[in-house]
Amino acid sequence: MEGLDFLLVPLLAQGHIIPMVDLARLLAARGARVTVATTPVNAARNRAIVEASAAVGLDVALVEIAFPGPEVGLPEGLENMDRLVELQLYQPFFTAVWRMEAPLEEYVRSLPRRPDCLIADSCNPWTAGVCARHGIPRLVLHCPSTYFLLATHKLSKHGVYDRVADETETFEVPDFPVRAVGNVATFRAFFQWPGPGAEKWLQDCQDAEATADGLLVNTFRDIEGVFVDGYAAALGRKTWAIGPTCASSTIMDAGSKASRGSRADVDAGVIVSWLDARPAASVLYVSFGSIAQLRAKQLIELARGLEASKRPFVWAIKEAKSNADVQAWLADGFEERIKDR
């Protein structure tokens, strides 16, 4: 790996940037020089972990490229999907993401030598043109499970999406390594992405994946080997299981102590000590990630269910920062009633 120069381009979402930064550290620990290209806001969020890694000798760096959000009507500084609290902002956000091809091209042209390899998030197909014009080998990184990737591929290939009439109609994922039976209601995520009006974006992602020089999946073979092999065969591409990328935190003590992404509202030590005081397998964990945004009515119903469960729980509620109705309901006795659990 020594002497090789990698350029990594993550999607602008925390669940994608963090694994990409972890991958940068893993590559750098093996002697490569690695640069992560992202926007100014996301660079600021992840600078601590990158600088801590560089401080212990890893050749890893961040470079900022412009985000053309204001050109399509987005507020200044809205550069991450976890800030999309209004549904009508999703389409302009992805329009702006696709326009990042120009600033990335400008950055690559400014380099004294081209990178030996570019690793792009699977949701950044616009990097394919830059690589083609400069003769840069391109790998695609997938962050979802390979089970999910293979299942959605099979459902699409065999036309299941077109045949399902309603949400309760049962179907089986065809030509799958294990038996997987469900319906739209239970396999919701298999049918929601990318949503109405985003068909071209999905097609762009599929086309870019089909022409990539290889695929990376953030998983490991002991848990998903059969699905990794199935996906590699289905796509006809060399595929590496490189995860979990969070294992990069074991590379160095200094790097692992730095913040990955945004600072958490609650210290991890507080959560761990609280968990240690609970019986094994007794705690519910609730999190919808950085992209999904629950409506106030949905979140309140979830809160009522957790309260009625009488179980201890850990719940990440990002909507409490952006939704006044949620803030008011949580403060109206809920936190007092469940404070001991």
Strand tally is: 11
Question: What's the mean pLDDT score?
Answer: 89
How far apart are the first and last residues' alpha carbons, in Å? 49 Å
The H/E string reads EHEHEHHEHEHHEEHHEHEHHEHEH
Tell me, briefly, the overall form. Answer: globular
Q: Assess the beta-strand content as a share of residues.
A: 5-15%
Q: What would you report as the Rg, rounded to the nearest angstrom?
A: 21 Å
Q: What order do the strands of the largest sheet run in, or round the barrel if closed?
A: 3-2-1-4-5-8-9
Structural class: alpha/beta
State the low-pLDDT regions, or none.
none
Number of helices: 14
Q: Outline the biggest β-sheet.
A: 7 strands, parallel
Approximately how much helix is present in the residues?
40-55%
